[in-house]
């Protein structure tokens, strides 16, 4: 199964040589599930010719906000809506989670409650998953087409399911602890409050359920669709 990775941001230059860019992280996260990958740097204006060029789409995280004025954001939102109509499955992570929600009529804002960083617990319908987080923005109003499937006290709409067409999560299952540590030392200083970073640093060794989340993502991509993908 060919998954198109729609890359909406770039890993920090100081970290990428040793830890890889975001598409590399997703390839590692989903290794062993039978996928092949093709990357499109939408952050640089590179888009697929059609929503059916791949069997599914994965939208990455980004340092940008979905509400910012970038030339590539409106066409990405239209691509999301076209994929939804064509029943081509989509997975969105962090920025990807937010941009799918915004494209489908939800609301994304810079959260007044501040940052979530590092190992964070989420309630997936009674199952606790601990995943790494790195975000200040979040989905404050879910689209009517979405069902909330994970939450916590900090992030009400932590994961959303749009029937069999989109699965999105605010957390970063692809982020390893060493990458979160690197983000705190590069992008975090002066941006994330010291107390938030101190708490995240203390939890760097916490067990993560990233493999559980990866299995859920893989199962979603492979599930029979209610309609076969059709040309847009």
From TrEMBL:
Keyword Membrane belongs to the record: no
Record key words, sorted: Glutamine amidotransferase, Transferase
Ranges of residues in domain Glutamine amidotransferase: 46-177
Transmembrane segments: none
UniProt key word Mitochondrion: no
GO MF terms held by the record: transferase activity
One of the Pfam families matching this protein, by short name: GATase
InterPro entries named among the record's database cross-references: ChyE-like, Class_I_gatase-like, GATASE
PROSITE patterns named among the record's database cross-references: GATASE_TYPE_1
GO cellular component: a single term: cytosol
Protein name: Type 1 glutamine amidotransferase
Organism, scientific name: Tabrizicola oligotrophica
